[in-house]
Amino acid sequence: MTEGLRTEEFQVNMGPHHPSTHGVCRFILTMDGEVIVRAEPVIGYLHRSLEKICENRTYAQCIPVMDRFEYCTSMCCNEVFALAVEKLAGIEVPEYAEYLRVIMMELNRIASHMIWYGTTALDLGAITPFLYSFREREDILDMFEMTCGQRLTYNYIRIGGVSKDIPPEFIPKCKEFLATIDHKIDDYERMLTENPIFMVRNKGVGTLSPEMAIAYGVSGPSLRASGIKYDLRRDDPYSIYNRFKFDIPVCHNGDCYDRYIIRIKEMRESAKIVRQALEQLPNAEVNTGKMVKANFKPAKGEVYSRIENSRGEMGVYIQSTGDTKKPLRVKMRGGSYNQLQVMPELVKGVKIADVVAIMASLDIIMPEVDR
pLDDT (tens digit, 0 to 9) for every residue of the chain, 371 residues total? Predict the structure, then answer.
């Protein structure tokens, strides 16, 4: 008798410089032929010690550091740190500044989802969607640049308010953008939503059950794609989000395709929030808030603030001694970390090409992991 065919498992390194891992994440894949048996994510290639850097800066100096925490939505990073310090020190933000914060954060959310849309299509071999989404993203960055002079790391939302008022040309530019954005998103959908190749690559791939999502602490669009209707803007309101009417998109399959649908819908909802904020923008005397001084020392205590970022719950924990102008402890939470941890469960039994689609659909950004 001839001996039966025997196979052996072998390991394949994916990353840290492979484009589909977005540069600085490595996967050690254990393969049985073309099928993945196990996957181990290896992080640390981008570690910058942002938490320790903040512990050696004054509270005001931490804001530019937070810009680098998750640079696709730096406005939100500024907000979550400012919220924590304001809560700790009992600082009240002027109403006008709150509206400006919401406008900037929601525009930044749209810009972030546009990055995701374009790079996800690029990861799967489609070039045109990338060019389309970055065209509209440039309009948002133009508005940020005219407001604070920056296009990526803004240092705009400060402790106590915002750094400056919006220029006169901002509102007309923003209304012009809002007038066309829904039609542009329609174009995005025409390219991918019913594209047969895109559907085959994403439908039924990387299915994340609601139970697994909760067990791993997954949040944001990836959680809502699994059927959990949870959004901090509604369920634990901060700033002035309770003044706006917007929907929380939810899907129920939990696969890569549903995660795509959720983000498409969220761009429309963010545009809806910005429209309402512009309509409600106070006409009273402009007050963008009083910035804290260099020797600012909040009261002794500890605080945790959290917001709904484009990748899920973003949080900052601060511990203050009350007698120094630097925080004693700073701890950051980013949604990408939890989503990376669930990757080994999602890629079991799939092929390497599916790993690319799954990681892209989760919208993991490594600075939020290697903080």
Answer: 456 666 789 999 998 887 777 778 999 999 999 999 999 999 988 888 999 999 999 999 999 999 999 999 999 999 999 999 999 999 999 999 999 999 999 999 999 999 999 999 999 999 999 999 999 999 999 999 999 999 999 999 999 999 999 999 999 999 999 999 999 999 999 999 999 999 999 999 999 999 999 999 999 999 999 999 999 999 999 999 999 999 999 999 999 999 999 999 999 999 999 999 999 999 867 788 888 888 899 999 999 999 999 999 999 999 999 999 999 999 999 999 999 999 999 999 999 999 999 999 999 999 899 88
Is residue 105 within 8 Å of 270, Cβ to Cβ?
Answer: no
Please state which architecture CATH assigns to domain 47-368.
Orthogonal Bundle (1.10)
Give the span between the Cα atoms of 46 and 367, in whole angstroms.
7
HEC string of the chain equals CCCCCCCCCEEEEECCCCHHHCCCCEEEEEEECCEEEEEEEECCCCCCCHHHHHCCCCCCCHHHHHCCCCHHHHHHHHHHHHHHHHHHHCCCCCHHHHHHHHHHHHHHHHHHHHHHHHHHHHHCCCCHHHHHHHHHHHHHHHHHHHHHCCCCCCCCEECCEECCCCCCCHHHHHHHHHHHHHHHHHHHHHHHCCCHHHHHHHCCCCCCCHHHHHHCCCCCHHHHCCCCCCCHHHHCCCCCHHHCCCCCCCCCCCCHHHHHHHHHHHHHHHHHHHHHHHHHCCCCCCCCCCCCCCCCCCCCEEEEEEEEECCEEEEEEEEECCCCCCCCEEEEECHHHHHHHHHHHHCCCCCHHHHHHHHHHHCCCHHHCCC
C-alpha dist (Å) from residue 128 to 87, 187, 188, 226: 45, 11, 10, 28
**What are the residue boundaries of the structural domains of the chain, listed by start?**
47-368
